[in-house]
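Example A, followed by Example B.
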Amino acid sequence: MNPSLGVAPIGPIDARIRPPGSKSITNRAILCAALAQGSSTLVNILDSQDTRLMADALQLLGTSIEIDWTQNRAQINGCGGPFPVSAAELNVENSGTAMRFLTAAVSLTRGRFRLIGSTRMHQRPVGDLLAALRQLGVNARAESAGDCPPVVVESTGWNAADVQISAATSSQFASGLMLAAPYAEHPITIHIRGPVVSAPFLQLTADVMSAFGGQVELTDEAISISNRHRYRGCVYQVEPDATAASYFLAAAAIAGGTVTIEGLGRNSKQGDLEFANRLAEMGCRVEWSDDSVTLYGPVQHGIEVDMGAISDTVQTLAVVALFADGPTRIRNVAHIRHKESDRIGDLARELRNLGAVVDERPDGLRILPSKLRGAAIDTYDDHRMAMSLSLIGLKIPGIEIRNPSCVAKTYPNYFQDLARVTGTEIVGIE
């Protein structure tokens, strides 16, 4: 892929798309299948850097995994419990799910493990997860200042039944414990301390676990997991990625016209599909069926919105807000400063570079629509920055996306799909 890409303005769109498989579900399902007794077949898995990193790490830990990435299908013979390998160094690069989920999962095994990643990963704190593992009797520590990776886990298994954890920075810390808990010596109760960001992902984790035979009871204050109901191999269908769908919903909100997302509807397990309802609040019309959602654009007006539950779509809503009539206030997302980029500060900087008026707040942004201009946009090696901000080019000429290849983290074919769905021309700029 070229070092930068241009996105050409287009008129109203009329399209349908079935996004690729969910990254969040794929990585949860691969881990459950790796721990399960027996063989699992995973269908419609996502082919991306994050999912390949998870699969590669589990193979290093002794799991038998055969994947046909061209068919998005995996055959996994589970370990039937803790991993057979007792020592390994795992490089998860910039995959947050792999870092959090594997840190918890390897702590089930008697042995010593070290998890490393990219430069940015070594700036993303995991102290809340490590503190929880220490409550369970695991020697888990970070090698960098600020409780950031690399992480070292030395364990003989979990020797406690109750654990407290903060999910104020990431719900993935609690999800990691949940995914590993069926193989603990005792039934586990996870007590959530304080607010939970991206809370719908905890229910998503419970749903995937249940599909593999796990038993989870989820309340507002605690999560209880049985150690008598362990994972069993199964055939598991991964539904399309709701966060990926948000870009195409936003495309219709920006350019006008209509887009239908296939495979995701009112019965979806993914919280990020709520993004469609936020666009409805901004004046778009949304129609739901059991397995699809259709949005009619364009956007009308700004809103004030708490996006703590769907924070992976903040950048996309901020881009839509540029074309609304009136200001938009996004709040309760302070934790996204610790994602692949500072998704508040870096986003504000790039929007201002386009001429937008942006008030950066500790927990979010206030965006006041103004006259925009074309510009080169830095992506900070953040896939969501590249995908979201590329949508501005559907209306504003001269938009250039630098380092577009970073979308491979979760959606390698994003720009091809954007061109196909919207009719825009993606121009390589050397």
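Example B, a separate protein, is given below in the same form.
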Amino acid sequence: MKPSSDASAEPANTPDSPSGRLQGFAYWCAMGLGSLGFLMAINQTFNLKILGFQPLGNAYLYYLIGIFLAAAFLCFPAWSGARHRVSWYDWPLALAALGACGYLGYHGLIMIQLGWDYMAPIEATAASAVLLVLVLEGVRRSRGGPAKVSVLSSGILGSLSGSVISNILTTGPITIPTMKKTGYPAHYAAAIEACASTGGTLMPPIMGAVAFIMASFLGVPYSEIIIAAFLPALLFYLALLFQVDIYAAKRGLKGMPEADIPSLKETLKDGWPYLLSLVMLIYMLLFMRLEAYAPYYATVVLLGISMFKRRHRLNLKRALAFIWDLTTSVSNLVAILAGIGLVVGGLSYTGVAGAFSRELLLYADGSVPLMLAAGAVTSFVLGMGMTVSACYIFLSILLAPALVSAGLNPLASHLFILYWGMMSYITPPVALAAITAAGVAGASGSKT
């Protein structure tokens, strides 16, 4: 992740945050919650035991959900009319999230030891009920949420953030005007950007957070995931390049004038810190196997190098904007994943996940092509409106067992689910990526 390079950007009014929504006390509360959450994550990851604090088991997750869910109520409006201010009811919701999760986190170890899954005290049941309502409200605020949060980062070969919408908002303001200058219609330029950003989730070496989740689910090294994903991602981008080339040839479009093309030397001179941090990140992921620590080390290196470059130096305003970006982004993800957790938990405890797999096998009647077609449709429909990571987590529990039971390769089955789930970003009726890119291009959403 890189700090904002716009020194004039106001932290409380970043391009992807609700315009002017957080000011004064509300802004600093959200920033404080975000900073506390990041400090807790660092403390837990590196086992620092700051002030003797080291939550065990599920307690850490409860605390983290409470902090970022509270921040989500402050950052994201309940309805469009409240996008310019924090409403009075957002404060009690935020406090309720902290209170409910704080209670459950404090009793996290006890609930495991005493089996609260089967018989819990009335206070725990009440806190869980409150958290359930709060999570549903937080999710109601994810739909399209990634388009409102700030940009985390953009990968050179793929996505570092795992968010299709973030990729569009990062690269779109540069690539879309350039395509329009060379003759591409606005809606076509937006469509190209939407497809390219969607494919970035599948493109090694990073692939976003979903690759780490997949490696954890399958119990395989991260290197196996990126090797298996490379060929499908390459085919995806080759098809996109052919489409763009054919369109340009058909309409006689030319490239940019040579005078307008930036110098490679100057580009590398200014951007080498980002390449260095990316190389370092890949090395630590693939060779040192430091999946939990690598993002922290790479970010520290990037921030350290930026201090030696005047244009990218991290001053107070940029540091606040950096924390703001992290707070809103993680709050959005926590709200989404908490909602997915409700669905996954319900499917697991009721046995619906297993029943779905059995029914899919039954109706396919042993036909692998029929099962793949049904799986593709299921992945596509259920993936609508979710982030790629949330979509994959949901479908890997619901659909993957059926594909594996039919004798298909587990890794290929999981990549198949990922691919069809992410396609909903560029296909109606949801098409979040296409709509977002259309907004950047100033084009018609339906045409895009």
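On Example B: The chain is about 65% helix and 0% strand.
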